[in-house]
Amino acid sequence: METDEVIALLNAHKYVGESYVLIRELKIYLNLGVNHFNPRIRIKIWKSSVNSTEPYHFTVSHNVRTPTQAGPYYPSITQAATESEAIHQAISSTKAYLVGAIDQGHEPSDSWLIPNDDF
After folding, report:
1. Looking at the domain assignment, is residue 9 inside a domain?
2. Do the beta carbons of residue 99 and residue 34 sit within 8 Å?
3. CA dihedral sign, ordered 39, 37, 112, 103
4. pLDDT tens digits, residue range 43-68?
5. What is the residue range of 102's domain?
6. How do 21-29 and 40-47 pair as beta strands?
7. Euclidean distance between CA atoms 66 and 89, whole angstroms
8. Does 14 reside within a domain?
9. How far is CA 63 from the centre of its chain?
10. Residue range 86-104: average pLDDT?
11. CB-count exposure of residue 28 (10 Å: 0-12, 13-18, 19+)
């Protein structure tokens, strides 16, 4: 079945209130411009009919907590109009705090990546 057919099937099911269909999982290594620090993250891209103008959603394997943050950063906007936009947002939301801490002179560490229990 095609993704949209699965979504339509789930939408028509009387016992399904909301659904997300996994359409892609990516494994990437970030290039943050620092030697020997290329953190690996995974991204899942989902498609849903919950928001017809932004049907794509993402989850990331790790949340970021650097020395410049009081707690881990959880992306607040995880939906997008296109799959490519969702991928871009997932990467950007992860790298922003990493680059910020590095730019402030902190030594990069794998401990900055906190596993996402919901991944």
Report:
1. no
2. no
3. negative
4. 999 999 999 999 999 999 999 999 99
5. 20-115
6. antiparallel
7. 19
8. no
9. 9
10. 96
11. middle
> Cβ of 1: how many Cβ atoms within 10 Å?
9
- The whole-number average pLDDT for the span 106-111 is 96
Q: What is the pLDDT of residues 6-21, one digit of tens each?
A: 999 999 999 999 999 9
Question: Tokens 């990069």 map to which residue?
Answer: 108
92 Cβ partners below 8 Å, 6+ apart?
none
Alpha-carbon distances, residue 102 vs 17, 32, 52, 110 (angstroms): 43, 9, 38, 13
Q: In the predicted model, what is the mean pLDDT of residues 95-106?
A: 96
Q: Which residues lie across from 59 on neighbouring strands?
A: 44
* Count of Cβ atoms closer than 10 Å to residue 94 Cβ: 23
User: How many folded domains does the chain comprise?
Assistant: 1
Averaged pLDDT score across all residues of the chain: 96
Residue 103 in any domain: the answer is yes
